[in-house]
Amino acid sequence: MTGPTRREMLVLGAGAMLAVPAMAQETPRRGGVLTVHFATEQRILNPSLQASTGVYIVGGKIQEALLDLDAEGRPVGVLAESWESAPDGLTHTFRLRRGVTWHDGRPFTSADVQFTAMEMWKKILNYGTTLQQFLTEVQTPDPHTAVFKYSRPMPQGLLLRALPDLGYVSPKHVFETGDIRQNPANTAPIGTGPFRFVQYERGQFIIAERNPNYWREGMPYLDRVVWRVVGDRAAAAAQMEAGQILFSPYSSLTIADLQRLGRDPRFEVTTRGNEGNVRTNTLEFNFRNPVLADIRVRRAIAHALNVPFFIENFLGPFAKPGTGPIPSVSTDYYPGPDVPQYPYDPALANRLLDEAGQRRGQGGLRFALRLLPAPWGEDIALWATFIQQSLQQVGIRIEIVRNDAAGYLRSVYRDHAFDLATGWHQYRSDPAVSTTVWYRSGSPVGAPWTNQWGWKDDRIDALIDAAATEVDPAKRRALYAEFVRAVQTELPLWMPIEQIFVSVFNRRVRNAGNNPRWASSSWHDTWLAS
Amino acid sequence: MRILRLAGRRLAASLPTLLIILAGMFLLLQLAPGDTVDALMAQIGGGDAAFAAEMRRFYGLDAGVPAQLWNYLSRLATLDLGHSAIYGKSVATVILERLPATLLLMVSALSFAFSFGLVLGVIAARRVNRWPDTLISTLGLIFYATPSFWFGLMAIVVFSVHLQWLPAGGLSDITRSLSGLAAVVDVARHLVLPTLTLGLIFLAIYLRIMRASMLEVLSLDFVRTARAKGLSETRVVARHVLRNAMLPMVTLIGLQAGTMLGGSVVVESVFALPGLGRLAYESVVQRDLNTLLGIIFVSALLVIAINFLVDILYARLDPRISAEE
Questions:
Q1: pLDDT tens-digit profile of B269-310?
Q2: Nearest-CA residue of chain B relative to A208?
Q3: What is the mean pLDDT of chain A?
Q4: Residue A310 has what pLDDT?
């Protein structure tokens, strides 16, 4: 016998019972309306055409993807029941769930998957167009099998990790005629999900109701989901307190309100359920400025910033120091902190700047730079001010240039009218989805969140390309470790802070945050305590 | 018939202004860095260059600026406001959807401010320099000096979060489906706090104007005559003073109708109301030219219409004005 003794079992059992909150023992109650804070109203609600949290928060309850992530972050079947991949990575076969119907009563089949993949994911969906660029066709040998054919190897790990976000299926019979983008179903979605679209009043609310024919027996528990469009952060916090909103996703409240509501027993303020939505704060350098093209200057700037101090005093418990472009929550690809780091060391920063020939002139000033902070997120504004004040200490004067969203993207990524820029890099489950584009050369001018630094490194380009098509998981992991080491050494941009989005739940919401992309997922098992 | 002719003349006189405003706004927005596809990219968190180029073609941004302006104006000539980039439907529909909430808020806030401003102004003038006057004037000063977003948030904290008397935001209770009288009461309950917030600042202005105007008219000769006739003080105020003192108030309404359309952005945001102010703000942020120009067009028409009504009202209050026309 190697298993635990009965005594140990008892102890373990008691421990488990203590660890699991009492609510998990309760039986789900049917009924109720879940009201959700919707701060980022989008142009469309169809997640097959637009990959963004602002679409998933609504469309993800109405339409479903082939896969989702389970509590441990592993891919789990939704519209696909099982899958297998050929060893060469060129063929991936998905067996689809039977007996699933669209909200308009038509059956869900492999033709829907084929149409969505070829016409939406490959042609329109942001990030999907890159992911599926080598997808040549989707074969449908029978109504419940979809075979994806690629012209270059597609690592199974990458595909399975990307599909929970980039694998939402739309009904072919609704979209096959007319312009896909103009289809009215983009704002009145028809899906297979646990909730059926009812009404969308722009700037006010969206309503969805229980889908009585949902394929998961007896689910969902909620009668309705209502999204309230509230743009003002302080007003949204007040609505949470007044009970008009039960859930606020994706760090949509002010940092002060998050901390205040966190002390209120009626609410839970947590990163749980957002582990799949990680972002890092960036510091982007423009190599067209010869001062910044000197690696010693870039390293000096990094050494001049006291990141732990900033996090402790401004961001609170929901952020931690970052160690590179692949964040620590990415269990499969995180290479550990054992890559070049730039700890706070003002003396070293001063020395590096002197060595680079940037000596202090009049008033102790070495040179001046423009810093463009992205307008999303309070943390970016704070971080920009912190950079300004910290760099003043080592003799660099920073002029902060503020723009709104469209102006920021245009100035940085198209006009290259910046010296330093700071914003968010969002990590989407796999480095190949939206991380390596920050480093790969050759992105067309104007493509946001790509390498627009005027910097190119052939070795790093080769590493990125090799990893994107490497089908052996162990080799792929090693390639990404090498990639992180290389970019941390060259420092074309720096990602010193890691943050997970914060959710605020009213404690009546149960089964909340039980998977790593909960705010985006379908909420089929969510229920409300009375 | 005379009124119609007057209206037609007014409209014709405003046409050049309207045209200049629209073309000016169009060009001004071209100066703002970034276009609606940049804004879309920011909103969705990125996409590749092919996607961006395709979207620019889709929104008609690949044509030059003069061509875009010409397209817009020639469409406008046929009263076609164009297609909204952020809403994916025609601008006319989008604005029509938002107009009721804006008008409801504007009319209720204006009537609240006007009627209470009138009453308080009269009381203050009749008790000038005594405690009711001091109290009313001080209150007016406080209302005028307080930023409306703060007022709104404090009102929410007190009446919605702590006392739970009134809803914190929105136009109606969307978790229940109400009809008939219950629905009207529901909307009215939702409008109480926004109306107060938007109205209080204007109330302060109205009461001060009314007070000053009353004091001035009270010192005129015809009031002395009325008193000499032996009329009671109430009758003097109600019949003789009030009517003449109202003229500046009516002028103010005409002037402030435009301000209120714009000034409601803050109130609409705080109370999550679907009005024109927020729509305009969103259109700027999203660089949605068609929608923004559409709103400006409709707002301009609205202001012209209100000023026209004010002119008619003048004539009714003071027959000498229409006689001069």
A1: 888 888 888 888 888 888 888 888 888 888 888 777 887 788
A2: B175
A3: 90
A4: 96
In this structure, are residues A422 and A371 in contact, taking their beta carbons and an 8 Å threshold? yes
Residue B323 has pLDDT above 70, yes or no: no
pLDDT in tens, A376-401: 888 999 999 999 999 999 999 999 99
The closest of B128, B146, B148, B149 to B137, measured between CA atoms, is B128
Nearest CA in chain B to A223: B175
HSE toward the beta carbon, residue B64, CA cutoff 13 A: 2
- Chain A residues with CB under 8 Å of B49 CB are 443-444, 446-447
Closest partner residue to A238 (CB to CB) among B153, B171, B175 is: B153
The answer to whether the CB atoms of B42 and A33 lie below 8 A apart is no
| Weakest mean pLDDT among A174-188, A388-402, A428-442, B295-309 | B295-309
pLDDT at A38 over 90: yes
pLDDT at B263: 59
CA–CA separation, B256 and A215 (whole Å): 57
Instruction: Pick the residue of B51, B163, B172, B282 with the most A CBs within 10 A to test the interface with A by mutation.
Output: B51
Cβ–Cβ < 8 Å for A314, A370: no
Q: Which residues of A touch B153 (CB under 8 A)?
A: 234-235, 238
- DSSP code for A156: H
**What single-letter amino acid sits at A191?**
G
DSSP assignment, residue A135? Answer: E
User: What is the C-alpha separation between B168 and B272, in angstroms, rounded?
Assistant: 9
- CB spacing of A235 vs B168 below 8 angstroms: yes
Phi and psi angles of residue A275, each rounded to the nearest 5 degrees, phi first: -60, -25
Contact (Cβ atoms closer than 8 angstroms) between residue A434 and residue A469? no
Residue of chain B with shortest Cα separation from A202: B274
- In the block, tokens 């008790």 appear at B127
pLDDT tens by residue, B1-20: 677 777 777 778 878 888 88
Rounded to an integer, what distance in angstroms lies between the CA atom of residue A491 and that of residue A287?
A: 11
* Angstroms from A389 CA to nearest CA on chain B: 27
A33 part of contact set with chain B, CB < 8 Å = yes
* Number of other CB atoms surrounding residue B324 within 10 Å: 7
- Residue A317 or A311, more confident: A311
Closest residue in B to A42 (Cα–Cα): B43
